[in-house]
Amino acid sequence: MSSLSYLELHRQVSPSIEAEIDSALDRLGPASSAVKSAITKLLRHQKLKHPLSVLPLLVHAMETGTPRPAIPLSAVHVLWWTSACYLDDLADGEGGAKVEDLDENEALLASLITGHMLPVQLIQAQAVPEAVRGALTAEITNGWIVAAGGQLNDMRSDAGQATRNSVITAYRGKSGAPFGMITAMAAILSGAAQDGIERWREFGYVFGVLWQIFNDQDDILSGRNEDLLNGTVTYLLACAIEEATPAVRADLLALHADAQKSADARSALTDLLLAPAVLRQYREDIHGFRDEAYRLVNGIGGDAHYVPVLRQLVDLSAQMLLQPRPGR
Questions:
Q1: Which one of 36, 40, 128, 253 is at 20 to 30 Å from 199 when CA atoms are compared?
Q2: Per-residue pLDDT, 219
Q3: b/e code 230-251 from CB counts within 10 Å (16+ = b)
Q4: Would you state the CATH architecture of domain 6-317?
């Protein structure tokens, strides 16, 4: 068990997670065949890139010694993020992510059911005490509300007013809340005491911040540059703004405004974002969030076999991927 990796755990349980989702779709019944078909197409289209559905399994395993009772929560995780990622594409104005033969309105309806109603139905179908079922359902509802608030804050953010703290506040909502939701749900299912549930929730929030920063880096390295095209105020931009002299700060803000329509502006802005001094601060902060996640895991304790596996997930999310551009 000590050599288990999160990838191995995912390989072991992924058929069971898929079966749990299939069962949830089957419970919709024959009268909902159109809904089931649309959700199935969305799930095929919006495949999650990383196996983070193991997170609730690891929380449950650390609390109880066994991961498998949390498989329904892994299914909830997949459904939630499938919906959220599609909605995020729409919010970014992509609308373009064509889902097989569904038009945009059909895909939107499928997304709402996938991330909202279906997870609630899945939880309601579990053979757990009513109090546990109610607490799990409340977590889904509250998680969506907090995550939507974080997304709204992110969409309305003003680069001219951005600080590292203001961006982290938005990140804790839009990415931290969903992870805090699923880690708290796993703790509830495990029978953890309230203080343990809250510690797991905070771990999820910190993990979500790290994961958002990981995604921000991937956006640059992939060449998609969706954040620059959408005018998103990222943590890297906030680091650059705080680090900059008044003259460079003015250049950053002007380039950020122009980057939505100019490839040259995006390239020039990326040069400033990848300055060594900016990346030093960025790396230092990533390591700080990583260390906070470690501290929370160590403080929670639990089954020692699964602690290294959870730390692997933290290490994955806390990678420093960006490097200064040549010549800078």
A1: 128
A2: 94
A3: bebbbbbbbbbbebbeeeebee
A4: Orthogonal Bundle (1.10)
pLDDT exceeds cutoff 60 at 123: yes
Give the Cβ contact number of residue 104 at 10 Å.
Answer: 13
Q: What is the average per-residue pLDDT within 78-98?
A: 80
Residues in the chain: 328
Distance CA 99, CA 42 (A): 6
Give yes or no for a contact between 257 and 160, defined as CB atoms under 8 angstroms apart: no
- In the DSSP assignment, the letter for residue 175 is I
The per-residue pLDDT for range 129-158, each reduced to its tens digit, is: 999 999 999 999 999 999 999 888 888 889
pLDDT in tens, 155-212: 888 999 999 999 999 999 999 999 999 999 999 999 999 999 999 999 999 999 999 9
Q: Could you tell me if 234 and 282 are in contact, meaning their C-beta atoms sit under 8 angstroms apart? A: no
Give 39-44's long-range contacts (Cβ < 8 A, gap of 24+).
39/110, 39/113, 39/114, 39/118, 41/99, 41/100, 41/101, 41/102, 41/107, 41/110, 42/82, 42/83, 42/86, 42/99, 42/102, 42/107, 42/110, 42/111, 42/114, 43/78, 43/82, 43/114, 44/100
Please state, in angstroms and rounded to a whole number, the distance separating the CA atoms of residues 182 and 179. 5
Domain ranges of the chain: 6-317
d(CA 183, CA 286): 21
Q: Report how far residue 212's alpha carbon sits from residue 82's, in angstroms, rounded to the nearest whole number.
A: 16
